[in-house]
Amino acid sequence: MKRINLLLILSFIIVAMSCKEDPKLPLENAEDSISTFYFIRHAEKDRSDPEDIDPELNQDGLGRAIRWAEVFDPVALDAIYITDFERTAMTAAPTSVKKEITPQYYDPKAIIIEEFKNLNLGKNVLIVGHSNTTPEFVNLMLGEEKYEHMDDYDNSSLFIVRIINGKATDIRLKMD
Known about the structure:
Layout (H helix, E strand, L loop, with lengths): L1 H17 L15 E8 L17 H14 L6 E4 L3 H14 L4 E2 L7 H7 L4 E6 L3 H10 L14 E8 L2 E8 L2
Parallel strand pairs: 1-4, 2-3, 2-4
Antiparallel strand pairs: 1-5, 5-6
């Protein structure tokens, strides 16, 4: 029951935050634009082989990936970005299938933040990363060092960054 209530509250917040003022807004115009970025870390990975640098998700992770798809169901996503790892692809898969969006690969070490913002101006975007890259990416979007690396077992944080007329705001939520 606690999970259902949390999912309902989280869904309501996401729906409220994902509303766009003008869906026909030209992407080149930064004034009067709202861009919303949803950042999550990949779901729980298989830790049975410590030598495996690209493990798949474990059963808990597969369940979480499905729950993320439920969370993002009411959000009108325009794009999904993942790193080139099985665990991020598997985390995004249920959402991308449900939304009929092909995920795009990004290299967290090669992000040019202003280009990324301009490319996604006026859009709702899901970004699936890692315990170190997700907070770093959020910090770049905010233009400040606000978040530290995530705990290695934190697979439930959701960072939402909204950029309205060039001004970024953020919130961090947790899904159990």
